[in-house]
Design a protein that fits this description.
10 helices; Tetracycline Repressor, domain 2; mainly alpha; Arc Repressor Mutant, subunit A; 2 domains
Amino acid sequence: MPKGSPELTEARREEIIVACEKLYQTMSFKEITIKEIGNITSFTRTSIYNYFHTKEEIFLALLKREYEMWIASLRKAMERHEQMTRDEFADMLAHSLEERTQLLKILSMNHYDMEAGSRPEHLTAFKVVYGESIRTVMFGLNKYFPDMEASEKQNFIYTFFPFMFGIYPYTFVTEKQRTAMEEAGVNYVFMTIYEITCSCVKKLLDREEK
């Protein structure tokens, strides 16, 4: 266990997470190592192992923080509105994910590897926050669409959250991928995070209302 106050421990954990986040802006998940992360922190590389055993645990902590910020954004938006139409709810969810590009990127690219490479206690801490994100969206459905059946709300959740895993690959395409799709005759239509999310939520709500 690391020595020092809880405040120091948390500050060092956060420094490690921020270092990982910075590297992830220009490097791939595979390229980033504990050594690379340690090179841009204020303490020794080996000290990182006092806080995280693997880079997967660091990425999982980064994803956990992203979910916490998304939850806070959703709650703030829902506190401002006592009522929302279908279109307004879709707009709110779409804008909230538009601000969380990093969350969507990690989800689609590295989520399975992070969970597989993390200790149970780190995975449980993440799942607590992930569960809270589900409950927050469900709160919105209960608040704004009280006439929806419980099974319809559950169907929304079971469709929307898996859908989130595919948002990033459909909205961020490299030139190589674009060229390959053109040569393969694939009719790719660019959509933003906002557009693809808003469209999905509206269709889900329309389906449940029928």
